[in-house]
Amino acid sequence: MIRALIADDHPIMREGLKLFLICNLDIEVDEAASGAEAIEYIRSRDDVDIVILDISMPGMDGLETLRILKQEKPNLPVLILSAYSEDQYALRALRSGANGYLMKTSATEELVEAVQRIVEGGTYLSPSIAQRVTTQLGKTADLPPHHILSDREFEVMRKIASGKTLTQISQELNLSIKTVSTYRSRILEKMKFRDNADITQYAIRYGLLKDAV
Question: Is 212 part of a structural domain of the chain?
Fold first, then answer.
């Protein structure tokens, strides 16, 4: 039997995924409502076969959680489940140690295939993105400039570009306004931007506003 942990801050999503997996696999599923809960759970268990991790959670997001999980248990299989398009976050997730990346809109039969493949030691990306991501993994020099940003900086940049205020961003990410302001300053410095207008123009140019929340 497969033992899985689903980490997602939306109870309905967790319950739906859990029910679907139980109906289609020989699997036992536990739940975590945050990245911190997921890390605490994994620290206390040695029998988890796969973690299904939401990328967008308040406070410690999925990519931060992923990095900590991989630091503590490098061989722990992790599938990232996201509302963001694969071309925005899949490469970052794989570089951080994820074993697969799946859109929430595809989380039905594809989810079963992804879990099975990852538990058996493989990786999972949808065919539409797999070749492009695999190519980019070996060609860092060809990546767009925003790939120099940290995952949190990238997330803040997208939210600024979508018109969110620092206050709104701080509330959504459960960070202080001062911390968000620091991220903004780093973004401006690293990307050689002057202001928010430059951030927005860049985001439009590279299609980063698609699926931005």
Answer: no
